[in-house]
Amino acid sequence: MAAEMDVVKIIYKKRRYVIGLGAVLVLNVYLLLFFSRSGWTVRIKSILNGNATAASQTAEQAELYPAWVKTNLSRSSKWARMRPWNYDPNSAWTSLDGKRPRGMIWPLPRHQKIIKNQLVALDVRKLSFKYREGSVQCDVTNKAFERYTDLIRKEYEPNMHDYSAKAQVVREVEVQINRPCELKPHLNMNETYHFISNMKSVSIVADTVWGVLRGLESFSQLLWTTSRGQVVLYETKIVDYPRYKHRGILMDTARHFLPKELIMKNLDAMSYNKMNVLHWHLVDDQSFPFFSKTFPELSYMGAYDAYKKIYTPQDVREIIDHARLRGIRVIPEFDSPGHTLAFGKSHPELLTTCSTNRQVFYGPMNPTLESTYEFMDKFFQELREVFDDEFIHLGGDEVDHLCW
Fold first, then answer.
1. C-alpha distance across the termini of the chain, in Å
2. 398 belongs to the catalytic site
3. What is the reported pTM?
4. Which residues are CB-contacts of 200 (< 8 A; sequence separation ≥ 6)?
5. Considering 146, 385, 390, 398, which one is annotated as catalytic?
6. What distances in angstroms separate CA 152 from CA 102, 128, 158, 224, 298, one per listed residue?
7. For the segment 3-51, what is each residue's pLDDT rounded down to a tens digit?
8. How far apart are the C-alpha atoms of 172 and 395, rounded to whole Å?
9. What are phi and psi of 15, to 5 degrees?
10. Which H or E run includes 370?
């Protein structure tokens, strides 16, 4: 009994050490869970293996910038840190899950007549689009036929049941284009289309390829599946045209860099909503992701990452072509003369040097120097060659007058 009491006394005297040891164990478990779930383990490994990133650059990346840019400029210089604040380029995407009413399309068309007691059966497995005799045939619509055939089959074919041999089934969609092909979307493009579906046929008639694109999207939205697994649509007549010529979305890839693939997904989503303008806000104070052949030093110093977070000329061309085939214009925005700190990271002479309270900072582009206009003239000449649209957005907002 005395021995047991001695053990209890020893444990009691050492309780601080026992409690401390327990607290350390609990803290270690908590930190282990925190780092594993928050991604810090990956970040620590990436820091320890930082040299691997540079070594993994491809030969194509190594040759992207001229030797004089990498020799004379350093991304660790004071110019590279020329920013009013730090911005973490993160973005969020939330999927929407819902059911659309049968026979309804988005956006609501100007005129639509539905006969709900008359169903048009569609054989998705053998679905094809063909031109009517005498119709103009265009590359834009040919690509759209392939795209919508693939979209519709992927959505409906897996759960589709076969029709009986006696069933009257539509397997072709007839398309008629009345005017010559247009290669590029523009402000005044005609997007009007006429759509008719009945027991015998489905047809889309439009004056231009852009109207056919909107009609194809409406057709894809009209389909639905019966309880028997049969793909059908109601007998429908639609005459549709947009209320506004410019129906766009602004995408800011200067503050939050977005990969090329994600931009293309957004273009797909725009086409599903019959939107026709991507306002691409490319450059701002935070970064300069646009690779310029005339001034490669701009993205070398101004991008979040000079190799991984830029848009090469090929990237820009692919985005413009992806948009064109969906009837979407790409209007780039290069904000000026304010919001131009990213220009100054490689060309500080373009900006106005300001001082207040014994601190030096940089304002908008200096309009008193002829060299500023010469630089911008060369830069915008390149933009006119890269982008197809007749408009380039110059920003022009929030020009700080404190320097003056």
1. 91
2. yes
3. 0.77
4. 168, 170
5. 398
6. 16, 11, 11, 11, 44
7. 555 544 544 455 555 556 566 555 665 555 555 555 555 555 555 455 5
8. 47
9. -60, -30
10. helix 370-386
